[in-house]
Amino acid sequence: MTWSLIARDPASGALGIAVASRFFACGSLVPHVGPAAAFATQAFVNPVWGTEGLRRLGAGEAADALLADLVARDAGAAQRQAHALDARGGGAAHTGAECVPWAGHVTGQGLSVAGNMLEGPQVIEDTARVFADRADLDFPDRMLAAMQAGEDAGGDRRGRQAAGLRIHRGQAHPWLDLRADDHADPLAELRRLLAVARERYLMVAEIMPTAENFSGAPDRSDTDRRIAEAERARIATGRASASFATTKG
């Protein structure tokens, strides 16, 4: 199951994982992201690879040494696939010999793509190529455009079901964490959710507390003004909200 993209935004330093699969709720098990490192565990998934892997990467361990240790300790390593970016910018990947074909990975500067049970190598190749080519896009849009290119190249050979996008901006908590757990077009659903997030959520996220600023910005009046202005501008141009939220009264 599954292909995933790990990428770092050179402009902001943000770090994210996007994943898609014909496997329910892949966004809950595959991506593990922290302030400075990211780890994706997939195929016959071992979630402990992800939780332990992210903790050790966060402590400064190199991705290649970490993966070598996980592979050596796991009797099921031949059925596992994992890839990671560490805090020093290094990348590493493991595709077990018993992963269902097509399976493989590609790594580059600030970028790693891996997948299994795919239509062919073009899935990860196109994912990596489009991410590299679309530096004009905002980071979340760039990641989703890359994943869509992989889907257009064939994606998971069984079909579609779920997808996820998790992005951190230097904090232990995510700046953005979206999932489509059971959907006929999960990447399109992530794009809708991203549009919903931009209507209000990401403006609030800008003033949320951080490890460096424990209180954040308690006065939300400026944020409320910006949200109201954006809503008025949307209505004035005749654009409907992307949200399915309802309002009582």
Provide an overview of this structure.
With 249 residues, the chain is of the alpha+beta class. It has helices at 26-29, 47-58, 63-73, 122-133, 139-152, 186-205, 221-236; strands spanning 3-8, 15-21, 31-33, 38-43, 80-85, 91-95, 104-108, 111-115, 162-168, 176-180. The protein has a six-stranded antiparallel β-sheet. It has a four-stranded antiparallel β-sheet with strand order 3-4-5-6. Helix 4 (122-133) packs antiparallel against helix 5. The relative contact order is 0.15.
List the defining traits of the structure above.
249 residues; alpha+beta; Glutamine Phosphoribosylpyrophosphate, subunit 1, domain 1; 6-stranded antiparallel β-sheet; 4-stranded antiparallel β-sheet; 22% strand; globular
What's the CATH architecture? 4-Layer Sandwich
What is the CA-based Rg, rounded?
Answer: 19 Å
CATH class: Alpha Beta
Strand content: 15-25%
* Main sheet properties: 6 strands, antiparallel
Order of SSEs, N→C? EEHEEHHEEEEHHEEHH
Short summary:
The protein is an alpha+beta fold.
